[in-house]
């Protein structure tokens, strides 16, 4: 007589299917949404927030609220990160944010980006320069690509999980990051050194945040650089990161008090 070893196979299959469907739905929004927060005092500055792959506007909400309290109008953009290649999703995500900021009368438009969001801004600025562009803070950006992409892009289902744009973020000369060149605007980069993914970290040179190595977050022409002890996923919620994001948008520099960690001397 067969023993009941737990949940029936059919139930396990249904549960797995539901989990996969939910994950896919999260990255395949067909109509980008935005959440606009207007500063209490009148401001002519607007900040566009752009999330990373398989995330949503909700991931950037704590940052958006902090920026609003700090005196900035914010437009927190949602976009379908797996809807196509970089040249397809960059105009969608960046363009949506620009349109919303312009609609509320912004004269200077800044950006705060997570992960691929920084690549989307760099791509759009190169394709169609933004006349109102102010300062940009990039959180954990793969500015020089990621070895994780190099080593996983040919695995079955890689495009389904991360989307075609993610597969363009490797470290070869043919990948998008290598084709963008130096930045021609004020950029502050914040990199992380924590990880929740030892499998991916094993593919990366140390230190890394579980998705991108610290050295590959850097970009020629950047104005300032900060390293924090947080991982790729949660760096957007880090108090030190939020504080320094506001400081960079205000002054063009990160706080010297938050520098001097064990990795700072290497960079």
Spell out the key features of this protein.
267 residues; alpha/beta; Rossmann fold; 9 helices; 34% helix
Can you walk through the features of this model?
- The structure is a single chain.
- By secondary structure, the chain is α/β, with parallel strands linked by helices.
- The protein contains nine helices and seven strands.
- The chain has helices at residues 9-27, 61-69, 86-103, 116-127, 147-152, 158-162, 176-180, 198-201, 239-251; strands at residues 34-37, 45-50, 73-77, 108-114, 133-139, 186-192, 224-228.
- Strands 1-3-2-4-5-6-7 form a seven-stranded mixed sheet, sandwiched between helices.
- Strand 4 (108-114), helix 4 and strand 5 form a beta-alpha-beta unit.
- It is globular.
Summary of the model, kept short:
This protein is of the alpha/beta class. It is built from 9 helices and 7 strands, in the order αββαβαβαβαααβαβα.
CATH topology: Rossmann fold
Total domains: 1
Q: C-alpha Rg, in Å? A: 19 Å
Strand fraction: 15-25%
N-C termini distance = 65 Å
SSE succession: HEEHEHEHEHHHEHEH
How much helical structure, as a percent, in the residues?
A: 25-40%
Calculate the mean pLDDT score and round it. 87
Q: Regions with pLDDT < 50 over 5+ consecutive residues?
A: 1-30
Number of strands: 7
Q: Write the CATH homologous superfamily.
A: Alpha/Beta hydrolase fold, catalytic domain
Largest sheet strand order: 1-3-2-4-5-6-7
Largest sheet: 7 strands, mixed
Topology:
Elements lengths: L8 H19 L6 E4 L7 E6 L10 H9 L3 E5 L8 H18 L4 E7 L1 H12 L5 E7 L7 H6 L5 H5 L13 H5 L5 E7 L5 H4 L22 E5 L10 H13 L16
Parallel strand pairs: 2-3, 2-4, 4-5, 5-6, 6-7
Antiparallel strand pairs: 1-3
Helix pairs in contact: 3-4
């Amino acid at each position: 007589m067969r023993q009941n070893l737990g949940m029936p196979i059919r139930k396990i299959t249904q549960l797995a299917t539901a989990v996969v469907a939910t994950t896919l739905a999260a990255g395949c929004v067909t109509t980008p949404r935005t959440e606009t927060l207007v500063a209490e005092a009148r401001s002519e500055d607007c900040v566009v927030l752009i999330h990373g792959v398989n995330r949503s506007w909700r991931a950037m909400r704590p940052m958006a609220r902090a920026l609003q309290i700090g005196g900035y109008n914010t437009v927190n953009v949602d976009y379908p990160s797996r809807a196509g290649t970089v040249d397809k999703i960059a105009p969608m995500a960046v363009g949506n944010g620009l349109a919303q900021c312009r609609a509320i009368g912004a004269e200077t438009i800044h950006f705060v980006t997570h992960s691929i969001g920084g690549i989307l801004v760099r791509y759009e600025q190169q394709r169609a320069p933004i006349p109102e562009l102010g300062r940009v803070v990039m959180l954990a950006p793969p500015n020089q690509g990621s070895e994780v992409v190099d080593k996983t892009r040919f695995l079955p289902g890689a495009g389904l999980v991360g989307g075609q744009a993610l597969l363009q973020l490797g470290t070869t000369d043919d990948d998008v990051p290598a084709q963008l060149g130096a930045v021609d605007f004020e950029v502050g980069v914040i990199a992380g050194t924590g990880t929740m993914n030892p499998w991916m970290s094993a593919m990366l040179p140390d230190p890394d945040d579980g998705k991108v190595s610290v050295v590959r977050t850097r970009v020629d022409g950047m104005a300032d650089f900060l390293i924090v002890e947080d991982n790729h996923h949660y760096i957007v919620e880090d108090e030190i990161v939020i504080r320094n994001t506001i400081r960079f948008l205000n002054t063009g520099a990160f706080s010297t008090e938050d520098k001097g960690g064990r990795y700072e001397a290497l960079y």
